[in-house]
Specification:
Bound molecules: fructose -6-phosphate
Strand content: 15-25%
Number of strands: 10
Order of helices and strands: EHEHEEHEHEEHEHEHEHH
Strand order of the largest sheet: 1-10-9-6-2-3-5
Distance between the termini: 18 Å
Shape: globular
Largest sheet: 7 strands, parallel
Radius of gyration: 17 Å
């Protein structure tokens, strides 16, 4: 695991955007795994800026999102399809056929999950997967105790996650309890992962993910077994790590050819 500590969330997102842009420049037909939530919002706006100002071409890229609420239409403002459209896709030249998001309205959830897995395989697998981190250690919506080799499927959210998501819904709405999420096994097959986490509220779980034991109770800890993960965090989220000095030393001495900035 490579742990990169930046000053704040904005710098974290800017580095993640540079990394994604680098992948797309090197492989114009790259397959991107994408996340939603508050964390990557600035990464998407930075990628849109790079698209506009540096003419980064997304027209051959394929995307797969991590998750979607069961029962929400893509037109619902709290759906992840809506989020992606608003924050990213509508600003780019990218055809809807290249965009994949789990179908929250599917009449046959298990079959649509199998189809999602098949589509990822048919596109040659994910080149780079962007991840956010739940304060309970979830990645995608693989909540604590998820099978570490799970595939795309329906999951029940924890009450904590339901509460964290409540702000996206109006007060009279019920926050969905179920989501379709890529599995941990699916995420682990991505050739590269970029984990973004910032702010004090993530400090404890970041330490567990990076320096704690690998356990299904902290699903993100499985990333310790992934061959290529960049964990981009800010100073506030790094506070509970034991090896901060080493991570900073490594980044400072990183060979030029391995750098994105
Ligand atoms: C979203 C997702 C989730 C979020 C996580 C953190 O697609 O898969 O795992 O990344 O819940 O959410 P924020 O960024 O809102 O703190």
């Amino acid at each position: 695991m490579e742990v990169v500590i930046k000053k704040n969330g904005e710098e974290c997102c800017s580095l993640a955007a540079k990394l994604i842009a680098g992948v797309v420049r090197q492989k114009p037909g790259a397959v991107l795994g994408l996340a939603t939530g508050r964390t990557p919002e600035l990464m998407y706006s930075e990628l849109v800026r790079i698209y506009r100002e540096e003419k980064l071409d997304f027209s051959k890229v394929t995307t797969f999102n991590l998750d979607e609420y069961v029962g929400l239409s893509p037109k619902h403002p709290a759906s992840y399809a809506y989020y992606m459209q608003e924050k990213f896709f509508r600003h780019l030249h990218i055809s809807p056929a290249q965009i994949h998001i789990p179908d929250g309205l599917s009449k046959n959830v298990p079959a649509s999950c199998d189809d999602y897995e098949e589509a990822i395989r048919k596109h040659g697998g994910i080149d780079v997967q962007v991840l956010g981190l739940g304060t309970d250690g979830h990645i995608g919506f693989n909540e604590p105790s998820s099978s570490l080799s799970s595939r795309t499927r329906i999951k029940t959210l924890t009450q904590k996650t339901v509460e964290a998501n409540r702000s996206q819904f109006s007060p009279e709405e019920t926050v969905p309890r179920h989501v379709i999420t890529m599995g941990i096994g699916t995420i682990m097959e991505a050739r590269q992962c970029v984990m973004l986490a910032y702010g004090e509220s993530k400090a404890e779980v970041v330490a567990k993910m990076v320096e704690g034991p690998i356990t299904a109770v902290i699903p993100a800890s499985i990333l310790q077994l992934h061959p290529k993960v960049m964990v981009i965090i800010d100073e506030a989220a790094s506070r509970k790590l034991r090896l901060i000095d080493y991570y900073q030393f490594v980044y400072k001495n990183k060979p030029e050819w391995q750098r994105y900035e």
